[in-house]
Amino acid sequence: xxxxxxxxxxxxxxxxxxxxxxxxxxxxxxxxxxxxxxxxxxxxxxxxxxxxxxxxxxxxxxxxxxxxxxxxxxxxxxxxxxxxxxxxxxxxxxxxxxxxxxxxxxxxxxxxxxxxxxxxxxxxxxxxxxxxxxxxxxxxxxxxxxxxxxxxxxxxxxxxxxxxxxxxxxxxxxxxxxxxxxxxxxxxxxxxxxxxxxxxxxxxxxxxxxxxxxxxxxxxxxxxxxxxxxxxxxxxxxxxxxxxxxxxxx
Amino acid sequence: xxxxxxxxxxxxxxxxxxxxxxxxxxxxxxxxxxxxxxxxxxxxxxxxxxxxxxxxxxxxxxxxxxxxx
Lengths: 250, 69
Description:
Helix content of chain B: over 70%
Distance between the termini of chain A: 42 Å
Largest sheet of chain B: none
Largest sheet of chain A: none
Radius of gyration of chain B: 16 Å
Strand content of chain A: under 5%
Helix content of chain A: over 70%
Shape of chain B: flat
Oligomer: heterodimer
Radius of gyration of chain A: 20 Å
């Protein structure tokens, strides 16, 4: 396995694990408050739409010439990565509340209970639609990451395996503990995913733009180290007191 | 037409997110590298250097919005 492939699997695994944790919290809240039948139906419908998207977009993406693919996909990955990283830096420096699965679970469960009673039989519309949207919205980014990373490396199968492993691990853990996975170090994982997406996007996008990286693929490690170091510097800079006026620090 | 508008808004939200500066910054980072390459400069350093600059600009805006006036 090359370094690039290992990086591909690690990035896809982490990104998918984070999204799966968030989807599991929503489905769990719907299951306990609106009934498992509707929650599972929503999960099934969401996964069906995601599978259809992969089936339609997967072959289309892989037919693009590699240079064009790298420029487009690199640009999108860079944009997504910067969004993840910006939020992660704000969280790490105390300017944004940390992601708290217990709080999200309680909020979703309370909203579901306040939404009126579920019918005695059949599918409960609220539980179904919230579970469906949770799986679809969290899954869309996973599908995008799997397709783009996989197509760029010409290893969609490897990327899909990384994603599947993450989803299976998260769902199995949630089933075992029967509560939101609040002890998963989600904020650190989001920071790592932000660094990885930004670095891969930068590397592939620049390659698509025509640059030749000194040292070839090995320079990807240098890009990752540079993005990580500058992100940590930004966190340190934002932790300084001048950036903490009353009411803005968490 | 309403569903088309909703779909377009969904795509915008998915790709651009809550700060358009990051998307614009990505275009500038890669577009700038492409222009330099076309001018004969192997600008492999351009996009990585653009990353902290884009982030700093976006973070500055986020904090400005949060600061009480």
